[in-house]
Design goal:
The chain has 17 helices and 8 strands. It is an alpha/beta fold and 341 residues long. Strand 5, helix 5 and strand 6 form a beta-alpha-beta unit. The structure holds nicotinamide-adenine-dinucleotide (NAD) and magnesium ion (MG).
Length: 341
Protein backbone atom coordinates (compact mmCIF):
# COMPACT_ATOMS: atom_id res chain seq x y z
CA UNK A 1 0.00 0.00 0.00
CA UNK A 2 1.32 3.37 -0.96
CA UNK A 3 0.20 6.41 1.00
CA UNK A 4 1.08 9.95 0.06
CA UNK A 5 0.54 12.68 2.59
CA UNK A 6 2.95 15.21 1.08
CA UNK A 7 1.52 15.49 -2.46
CA UNK A 8 1.24 19.00 -3.89
CA UNK A 9 -0.70 20.58 -6.75
CA UNK A 10 2.50 21.29 -8.71
CA UNK A 11 1.80 18.95 -11.67
CA UNK A 12 -1.43 20.83 -12.40
CA UNK A 13 -0.21 24.39 -12.02
CA UNK A 14 -0.94 26.49 -15.14
CA UNK A 15 -3.08 23.67 -16.52
CA UNK A 16 -6.75 24.05 -17.35
CA UNK A 17 -9.06 21.69 -15.45
CA UNK A 18 -12.57 21.08 -16.82
CA UNK A 19 -15.01 19.72 -14.25
CA UNK A 20 -17.99 18.08 -15.99
CA UNK A 21 -20.99 18.00 -13.66
CA UNK A 22 -21.68 20.27 -10.71
CA UNK A 23 -23.47 18.04 -8.21
CA UNK A 24 -22.27 16.45 -4.99
CA UNK A 25 -18.66 15.79 -6.02
CA UNK A 26 -18.40 18.29 -8.90
CA UNK A 27 -19.15 21.37 -6.83
CA UNK A 28 -16.87 20.35 -3.97
CA UNK A 29 -13.96 19.47 -6.26
CA UNK A 30 -14.31 22.64 -8.32
CA UNK A 31 -14.42 24.96 -5.30
CA UNK A 32 -11.52 23.22 -3.56
CA UNK A 33 -9.36 23.14 -6.72
CA UNK A 34 -9.98 26.85 -7.31
CA UNK A 35 -9.16 27.67 -3.68
CA UNK A 36 -5.94 25.69 -4.18
CA UNK A 37 -4.99 28.17 -6.91
CA UNK A 38 -5.82 26.00 -9.94
CA UNK A 39 -7.58 27.04 -13.15
CA UNK A 40 -11.08 25.52 -13.25
CA UNK A 41 -13.96 25.76 -15.73
CA UNK A 42 -17.24 23.88 -15.47
CA UNK A 43 -18.70 21.84 -18.33
CA UNK A 44 -22.50 21.54 -18.20
CA UNK A 45 -25.49 21.67 -20.46
CA UNK A 46 -26.51 25.32 -20.33
CA UNK A 47 -29.71 26.41 -18.63
CA UNK A 48 -29.98 23.71 -15.96
CA UNK A 49 -30.10 24.18 -12.20
CA UNK A 50 -26.47 23.05 -11.79
CA UNK A 51 -25.39 25.61 -14.35
CA UNK A 52 -27.03 28.46 -12.42
CA UNK A 53 -25.39 27.26 -9.21
CA UNK A 54 -21.92 27.10 -10.79
CA UNK A 55 -22.33 30.60 -12.18
CA UNK A 56 -23.52 31.89 -8.81
CA UNK A 57 -20.34 30.41 -7.32
CA UNK A 58 -18.36 32.53 -9.80
CA UNK A 59 -17.33 29.83 -12.30
CA UNK A 60 -17.19 30.06 -16.07
CA UNK A 61 -19.66 27.51 -17.45
CA UNK A 62 -19.24 26.07 -20.94
CA UNK A 63 -20.86 23.31 -22.96
CA UNK A 64 -19.05 20.05 -22.07
CA UNK A 65 -17.46 19.71 -25.55
CA UNK A 66 -16.11 23.27 -25.41
CA UNK A 67 -14.76 22.83 -21.87
CA UNK A 68 -13.01 19.60 -22.88
CA UNK A 69 -11.27 21.15 -25.92
CA UNK A 70 -9.31 23.65 -23.84
CA UNK A 71 -8.51 21.37 -20.90
CA UNK A 72 -5.39 19.48 -19.83
CA UNK A 73 -7.43 17.52 -17.30
CA UNK A 74 -11.12 16.60 -17.53
CA UNK A 75 -12.85 15.44 -14.35
CA UNK A 76 -15.94 13.37 -15.18
CA UNK A 77 -18.30 14.10 -12.28
CA UNK A 78 -21.70 13.48 -13.81
CA UNK A 79 -23.80 10.50 -12.66
CA UNK A 80 -22.10 7.21 -13.61
CA UNK A 81 -24.94 6.15 -15.89
CA UNK A 82 -24.70 9.23 -18.15
CA UNK A 83 -20.90 9.09 -18.46
CA UNK A 84 -20.66 6.67 -21.44
CA UNK A 85 -22.80 8.92 -23.68
CA UNK A 86 -20.96 12.02 -22.47
CA UNK A 87 -17.64 10.31 -23.23
CA UNK A 88 -18.69 9.33 -26.77
CA UNK A 89 -20.31 12.63 -27.67
CA UNK A 90 -18.36 15.34 -25.88
CA UNK A 91 -15.09 13.93 -24.56
CA UNK A 92 -13.61 11.45 -27.05
CA UNK A 93 -13.84 13.77 -30.10
CA UNK A 94 -12.44 16.79 -28.22
CA UNK A 95 -9.87 15.74 -25.65
CA UNK A 96 -6.27 16.73 -26.49
CA UNK A 97 -3.71 13.93 -26.89
CA UNK A 98 -1.77 13.52 -23.63
CA UNK A 99 -4.52 15.15 -21.57
CA UNK A 100 -5.92 13.39 -18.50
CA UNK A 101 -9.37 11.93 -18.00
CA UNK A 102 -10.22 11.68 -14.31
CA UNK A 103 -12.99 9.76 -12.58
CA UNK A 104 -14.18 9.76 -8.95
CA UNK A 105 -15.45 6.18 -9.26
CA UNK A 106 -14.05 3.47 -11.51
CA UNK A 107 -17.38 1.99 -12.63
CA UNK A 108 -17.42 2.76 -16.36
CA UNK A 109 -13.74 2.11 -17.02
CA UNK A 110 -13.71 -1.10 -14.99
CA UNK A 111 -16.86 -2.52 -16.60
CA UNK A 112 -15.73 -1.23 -20.02
CA UNK A 113 -18.82 0.89 -20.64
CA UNK A 114 -16.19 3.53 -21.43
CA UNK A 115 -13.14 2.40 -23.42
CA UNK A 116 -10.84 5.42 -23.31
CA UNK A 117 -8.68 6.51 -26.25
CA UNK A 118 -5.13 5.12 -26.02
CA UNK A 119 -3.40 8.53 -26.25
CA UNK A 120 -4.76 9.97 -22.98
CA UNK A 121 -4.09 9.46 -19.29
CA UNK A 122 -6.89 7.76 -17.36
CA UNK A 123 -6.81 8.33 -13.62
CA UNK A 124 -8.99 8.05 -10.56
CA UNK A 125 -9.32 10.16 -7.43
CA UNK A 126 -12.12 8.88 -5.22
CA UNK A 127 -12.81 10.73 -1.97
CA UNK A 128 -14.09 8.40 0.72
CA UNK A 129 -16.97 10.69 1.62
CA UNK A 130 -19.84 12.69 0.09
CA UNK A 131 -19.17 15.98 -1.68
CA UNK A 132 -20.53 18.17 1.11
CA UNK A 133 -17.93 16.69 3.46
CA UNK A 134 -15.15 17.12 0.87
CA UNK A 135 -15.96 20.84 0.80
CA UNK A 136 -16.64 21.32 4.51
CA UNK A 137 -13.42 19.61 5.62
CA UNK A 138 -11.41 21.65 3.10
CA UNK A 139 -12.91 24.90 4.39
CA UNK A 140 -11.81 24.16 7.94
CA UNK A 141 -8.29 23.25 6.84
CA UNK A 142 -8.66 19.48 6.74
CA UNK A 143 -9.44 16.94 4.02
CA UNK A 144 -11.25 13.71 3.25
CA UNK A 145 -9.06 10.62 2.59
CA UNK A 146 -8.90 9.73 -1.11
CA UNK A 147 -8.09 6.63 -3.14
CA UNK A 148 -6.13 7.26 -6.33
CA UNK A 149 -5.25 5.06 -9.28
CA UNK A 150 -3.77 5.07 -12.76
CA UNK A 151 -5.50 3.02 -15.46
CA UNK A 152 -3.56 4.39 -18.42
CA UNK A 153 -0.41 6.52 -18.54
CA UNK A 154 0.07 8.08 -21.97
CA UNK A 155 1.94 11.20 -20.86
CA UNK A 156 4.27 9.58 -18.34
CA UNK A 157 2.79 11.99 -15.79
CA UNK A 158 -0.47 10.24 -14.93
CA UNK A 159 0.39 9.42 -11.32
CA UNK A 160 1.70 12.94 -10.65
CA UNK A 161 -1.51 14.40 -12.07
CA UNK A 162 -3.70 12.17 -9.90
CA UNK A 163 -1.71 13.10 -6.79
CA UNK A 164 -1.85 16.81 -7.68
CA UNK A 165 -5.63 16.65 -8.17
CA UNK A 166 -6.05 14.78 -4.87
CA UNK A 167 -3.93 17.44 -3.17
CA UNK A 168 -6.00 20.18 -4.83
CA UNK A 169 -9.26 18.87 -3.40
CA UNK A 170 -7.69 18.59 0.07
CA UNK A 171 -7.19 14.81 0.21
CA UNK A 172 -3.46 15.04 0.89
CA UNK A 173 -4.22 16.79 4.18
CA UNK A 174 -5.86 13.54 5.28
CA UNK A 175 -4.57 10.44 3.47
CA UNK A 176 -4.03 9.32 -0.13
CA UNK A 177 -4.02 5.59 -0.79
CA UNK A 178 -3.02 4.07 -4.12
CA UNK A 179 -5.34 1.45 -5.56
CA UNK A 180 -6.50 0.28 -9.00
CA UNK A 181 -9.82 0.80 -10.80
CA UNK A 182 -10.98 -2.73 -10.06
CA UNK A 183 -10.35 -2.57 -6.31
CA UNK A 184 -11.93 0.87 -5.97
CA UNK A 185 -15.01 -0.06 -8.00
CA UNK A 186 -15.69 -3.41 -6.38
CA UNK A 187 -15.07 -2.35 -2.78
CA UNK A 188 -17.08 0.85 -3.24
CA UNK A 189 -20.09 -1.02 -4.63
CA UNK A 190 -19.83 -3.72 -1.97
CA UNK A 191 -19.59 -1.15 0.81
CA UNK A 192 -22.69 0.73 -0.25
CA UNK A 193 -24.71 -2.41 -0.96
CA UNK A 194 -23.84 -4.66 1.96
CA UNK A 195 -22.97 -2.25 4.76
CA UNK A 196 -23.29 1.50 4.30
CA UNK A 197 -26.61 1.95 2.51
CA UNK A 198 -28.21 -1.45 1.99
CA UNK A 199 -27.03 -3.27 5.11
CA UNK A 200 -27.59 -0.52 7.65
CA UNK A 201 -30.96 0.61 6.32
CA UNK A 202 -32.30 -2.96 6.33
CA UNK A 203 -31.01 -3.54 9.85
CA UNK A 204 -32.73 -0.37 11.05
CA UNK A 205 -35.97 -1.19 9.22
CA UNK A 206 -36.14 -4.73 10.60
CA UNK A 207 -35.34 -3.50 14.12
CA UNK A 208 -38.10 -0.88 13.89
CA UNK A 209 -40.65 -3.35 12.52
CA UNK A 210 -39.79 -5.93 15.19
CA UNK A 211 -40.44 -3.45 18.00
CA UNK A 212 -43.61 -2.03 16.45
CA UNK A 213 -45.16 -5.43 15.71
CA UNK A 214 -44.50 -6.39 19.34
CA UNK A 215 -46.70 -3.45 20.39
CA UNK A 216 -44.12 -0.77 21.24
CA UNK A 217 -44.81 2.79 20.11
CA UNK A 218 -43.28 3.84 16.77
CA UNK A 219 -41.82 7.00 18.36
CA UNK A 220 -39.85 4.97 20.90
CA UNK A 221 -38.77 2.49 18.22
CA UNK A 222 -37.62 5.36 15.98
CA UNK A 223 -35.40 6.91 18.65
CA UNK A 224 -34.01 3.54 19.60
CA UNK A 225 -32.97 2.17 16.22
CA UNK A 226 -32.65 5.21 13.91
CA UNK A 227 -31.85 8.36 15.88
CA UNK A 228 -29.40 6.75 18.31
CA UNK A 229 -27.48 5.12 15.48
CA UNK A 230 -25.65 8.41 14.95
CA UNK A 231 -24.04 8.26 18.39
CA UNK A 232 -22.69 4.79 17.65
CA UNK A 233 -21.47 5.68 14.17
CA UNK A 234 -19.70 8.80 15.46
CA UNK A 235 -17.83 6.62 17.97
CA UNK A 236 -16.88 4.14 15.19
CA UNK A 237 -15.57 7.06 13.13
CA UNK A 238 -13.52 8.52 15.97
CA UNK A 239 -12.04 5.35 17.38
CA UNK A 240 -13.50 2.17 15.95
CA UNK A 241 -15.05 -0.61 18.02
CA UNK A 242 -12.65 0.23 20.87
CA UNK A 243 -14.14 3.67 21.39
CA UNK A 244 -17.73 2.47 20.99
CA UNK A 245 -17.17 -0.25 23.60
CA UNK A 246 -15.59 2.27 25.95
CA UNK A 247 -18.71 4.43 25.86
CA UNK A 248 -21.53 1.93 26.22
CA UNK A 249 -22.50 0.14 29.43
CA UNK A 250 -21.33 -3.32 30.43
CA UNK A 251 -24.86 -4.55 29.86
CA UNK A 252 -24.84 -3.16 26.32
CA UNK A 253 -21.46 -4.78 25.69
CA UNK A 254 -22.62 -8.18 26.90
CA UNK A 255 -25.71 -7.91 24.69
CA UNK A 256 -23.48 -6.92 21.77
CA UNK A 257 -21.10 -9.88 22.22
CA UNK A 258 -23.79 -12.51 22.70
CA UNK A 259 -26.79 -11.31 20.64
CA UNK A 260 -25.13 -9.42 17.76
CA UNK A 261 -23.74 -12.61 16.17
CA UNK A 262 -27.22 -14.20 16.36
CA UNK A 263 -28.74 -11.36 14.31
CA UNK A 264 -25.94 -11.02 11.77
CA UNK A 265 -24.62 -14.55 11.31
CA UNK A 266 -22.92 -16.95 8.91
CA UNK A 267 -25.99 -16.86 6.66
CA UNK A 268 -25.60 -13.10 6.36
CA UNK A 269 -21.96 -13.62 5.48
CA UNK A 270 -22.90 -16.12 2.75
CA UNK A 271 -25.31 -13.60 1.27
CA UNK A 272 -22.65 -10.87 1.47
CA UNK A 273 -20.35 -13.16 -0.52
CA UNK A 274 -23.11 -13.65 -3.11
CA UNK A 275 -23.59 -9.87 -3.39
CA UNK A 276 -19.83 -9.44 -3.85
CA UNK A 277 -19.75 -12.14 -6.51
CA UNK A 278 -22.43 -10.29 -8.53
CA UNK A 279 -20.25 -7.18 -8.36
CA UNK A 280 -17.14 -9.09 -9.42
CA UNK A 281 -18.71 -10.96 -12.33
CA UNK A 282 -20.50 -7.88 -13.71
CA UNK A 283 -24.06 -9.07 -12.96
CA UNK A 284 -24.83 -5.99 -10.86
CA UNK A 285 -23.36 -3.57 -13.41
CA UNK A 286 -25.38 -5.15 -16.21
CA UNK A 287 -28.59 -5.11 -14.20
CA UNK A 288 -28.16 -1.46 -13.15
CA UNK A 289 -27.23 -0.34 -16.67
CA UNK A 290 -30.35 -2.04 -18.07
CA UNK A 291 -32.53 -0.56 -15.32
CA UNK A 292 -31.23 2.92 -16.13
CA UNK A 293 -31.76 2.40 -19.87
CA UNK A 294 -35.36 1.29 -19.22
CA UNK A 295 -36.15 4.57 -17.43
CA UNK A 296 -35.67 3.33 -13.83
CA UNK A 297 -39.05 1.56 -13.31
CA UNK A 298 -37.91 -0.64 -10.40
CA UNK A 299 -35.69 2.03 -8.88
CA UNK A 300 -38.59 4.49 -8.73
CA UNK A 301 -40.99 1.93 -7.23
CA UNK A 302 -38.48 0.77 -4.62
CA UNK A 303 -37.59 4.33 -3.69
CA UNK A 304 -41.28 5.23 -3.25
CA UNK A 305 -41.73 2.21 -0.97
CA UNK A 306 -38.84 3.39 1.24
CA UNK A 307 -40.18 6.94 1.37
CA UNK A 308 -43.62 5.68 2.48
CA UNK A 309 -42.37 3.27 5.16
CA UNK A 310 -43.85 3.92 8.65
CA UNK A 311 -40.37 4.73 9.99
CA UNK A 312 -40.29 7.66 7.57
CA UNK A 313 -43.77 8.86 8.55
CA UNK A 314 -43.03 8.85 12.28
CA UNK A 315 -39.47 10.05 11.61
CA UNK A 316 -40.62 13.12 9.69
CA UNK A 317 -43.02 14.08 12.51
CA UNK A 318 -40.33 13.67 15.18
CA UNK A 319 -37.63 15.47 13.23
CA UNK A 320 -39.99 18.42 12.72
CA UNK A 321 -39.92 18.80 16.52
CA UNK A 322 -36.10 18.78 16.63
CA UNK A 323 -35.30 22.11 14.91
CA UNK A 324 -31.54 21.75 15.51
CA UNK A 325 -31.49 18.87 13.02
CA UNK A 326 -32.77 21.18 10.27
CA UNK A 327 -30.00 23.66 11.02
CA UNK A 328 -27.43 20.89 10.61
CA UNK A 329 -29.04 19.79 7.34
CA UNK A 330 -28.86 23.30 5.89
CA UNK A 331 -25.18 23.52 6.81
CA UNK A 332 -24.34 20.35 4.93
CA UNK A 333 -26.44 21.12 1.81
CA UNK A 334 -28.96 18.27 1.89
CA UNK A 335 -29.02 17.21 -1.79
CA UNK A 336 -25.27 16.72 -1.80
CA UNK A 337 -25.60 14.15 0.97
CA UNK A 338 -28.08 12.03 -0.93
CA UNK A 339 -25.54 9.35 -1.78
CA UNK A 340 -22.60 7.74 -0.16
CA UNK A 341 -21.25 7.09 -3.62
P1 LIG B 1 -24.66 14.15 -8.80
O1 LIG B 1 -25.86 13.40 -9.23
O2 LIG B 1 -24.66 14.78 -7.44
O3 LIG B 1 -24.33 15.32 -9.84
C1 LIG B 1 -24.27 15.11 -11.20
C2 LIG B 1 -24.02 16.40 -11.97
O4 LIG B 1 -23.91 16.06 -13.36
C3 LIG B 1 -25.14 17.43 -11.87
O5 LIG B 1 -24.54 18.71 -11.83
C4 LIG B 1 -25.88 17.25 -13.19
O6 LIG B 1 -26.50 18.47 -13.60
C5 LIG B 1 -24.75 16.91 -14.12
N1 LIG B 1 -25.14 16.19 -15.33
C6 LIG B 1 -26.07 15.20 -15.46
N2 LIG B 1 -26.10 14.77 -16.72
C7 LIG B 1 -25.17 15.49 -17.42
C8 LIG B 1 -24.72 15.51 -18.77
N3 LIG B 1 -25.25 14.67 -19.67
N4 LIG B 1 -23.74 16.39 -19.12
C9 LIG B 1 -23.19 17.22 -18.22
N5 LIG B 1 -23.57 17.24 -16.92
C10 LIG B 1 -24.54 16.39 -16.53
O7 LIG B 1 -23.42 13.16 -8.97
P2 LIG B 1 -22.31 12.75 -7.87
O8 LIG B 1 -22.97 11.98 -6.77
O9 LIG B 1 -21.47 13.93 -7.55
O10 LIG B 1 -21.46 11.69 -8.70
C11 LIG B 1 -20.45 12.09 -9.61
C12 LIG B 1 -19.37 11.03 -9.63
O11 LIG B 1 -18.74 10.96 -8.36
C13 LIG B 1 -19.87 9.61 -9.92
O12 LIG B 1 -18.91 8.94 -10.68
C14 LIG B 1 -19.96 8.99 -8.53
O13 LIG B 1 -19.86 7.59 -8.52
C15 LIG B 1 -18.74 9.63 -7.88
N6 LIG B 1 -18.73 9.66 -6.41
C16 LIG B 1 -19.80 10.16 -5.73
C17 LIG B 1 -19.77 10.25 -4.36
C18 LIG B 1 -20.92 10.88 -3.59
O14 LIG B 1 -20.84 10.91 -2.38
N7 LIG B 1 -21.96 11.37 -4.19
C19 LIG B 1 -18.63 9.81 -3.64
C20 LIG B 1 -17.52 9.34 -4.37
C21 LIG B 1 -17.59 9.26 -5.76
MG1 LIG C 1 -18.10 5.01 -1.61
Amino acid sequence: MSTEAKATTKALEHQRIAVLGYGSQGRAHALNLRDSGLDVVIGLRRGGASSARAQADGFRVQEPAEAVQAAELVAVLTPDMVQPKLYTEAIAPNLRPGAALLFAHGFNVHYKTIEPRADIDVILVAPKGPGALVRREFEIGRGVPCLYAVHQDASGQAREKALAYAAGIGGARAMLIQTDFREETETDLFGEQAVLCGGVSELVRHGFETLVEAGYRPEIAYYEVMHELKLIVDLFYEGGLTRMLAFVSETAQYGDYTRGPRVVDAGTRDRMRAVLKEIQDGTFAQEWTAEHAAGLPNYQALKQKDLEHPIEIVGAALRARMPWLQVQQAATATPALKKVG
